[in-house]
Amino acid sequence: MIVVTAATGRLGRTTAEALLARGVAPSEVRLAARSPERLADFAARGFAVAAADYERADTLEAAFAGADTVLLISSMGVDADRLRHHRNAIEAARRAGVRRIVYTSATHPSADSRFEWAGAHRLTEALLADSGLAWTILRDNAYAANNAGLYEQARHSGVLALPGVDAAVAYVTHEDVAAAAAAVLATSGHDGRIYEITGPEAVDGHRIAAMLGEVFGRPIGAVDLPLADFAQGLRAAGLPEFVVSGVTSFHAALAAGEYAAVSDDVARLTGRPAQPLRTYLQTLA
């Protein structure tokens, strides 16, 4: 049995579909979430569904019972909350007799990262290393869909205003992250491995603007958006301050080149090349 946590989110749902595509029977996949009623569509297709709240260790242990492998999708919140959630999940997995945890970490989870939430990823990786369980780490690059709001603004204004516009980023699609996760979940030989999950190339904001121009059918320029202005836009959208701070720090990390390295791990795991950012941008037409 494979358990996917945070299964109502985009990555959880996409991973469930990717497991099906690999030939895993839905009855062998348990989708765990705080609001399992939101998974009724998957339950109707034969997936097992369970309630699991990162704050409640008893629900995690029950959701993990009888499972061989758990995909631990990182939680939301400030670092202290995220680390507590992940510790709860790891300890519950050990009590439930789980053999292996696959964890969705992030690129460059180092102490010197400008990304505030990198700390929780780094410490969670350390918890797994000391857990006594088999583990696999998926260090995911920036999602291709992260800047969807900025791309939509560019459609109307003709200008892509992007923090760190000159910095190259190896954007990866949710579909490729899910496909890589499904490959690791459904096959052996991944214990103790760390995979860098990236797109096939690193692109800067100027190239993104040029691609958007082709997609939107109009010239799109590119300018640097100061981080302070970016943060203010997030506040104006009503996002909580911890999200404003975390996302702004993430863009500071991107601007510093922390997410520029390209890996072929997606291709090696899935047997096909990772999708370029252009593939995602074309869905915005």
UniProtKB/TrEMBL annotation:
Domain (NAD(P)-binding): residue spans on this chain: 7-186
Superkingdom: Bacteria
Pfam family, one: NAD_binding_10
Full protein name: NAD(P)-dependent oxidoreductase
Origin species: Rhodanobacter denitrificans
